[in-house]
Amino acid sequence: MSRWLTPEEIQKKREVKKKLFYLSIPILGGILGAVLTILSSTI
User: Fold this and answer.
1) Cα(37)–Cα(33) distance, rounded to whole angstroms?
2) pLDDT per residue rounded down to tens, the chain (43 residues)
3) SS (H, E, C) the chain
4) What's the CA gap between 38 and 35, in Å, rounded?
5) Of 6, 11, 41, 42, whose CB is crowded by the most CB atoms within 10 A?
6) Could you tell me the pTM of the whole model?
7) Looking at residue 31, what is its pLDDT?
């Protein structure tokens, strides 16, 4: 990627990354919760 990004494009990329990050937190939390529930029920 030698193409130069404009400040607007960089800002858009940051916003998309932020949204993905905030979306992934509850998803990861749900997965962790499910794994812990499964582990605790097998013990």
Assistant:
1) 6
2) 567 889 999 999 999 999 999 999 999 999 999 999 999 998 8
3) CCCCCCHHHHHHHHHHHHHHHHHHHHHHHHHHHHHHHHHHHHC
4) 5
5) 11
6) 0.54
7) 98
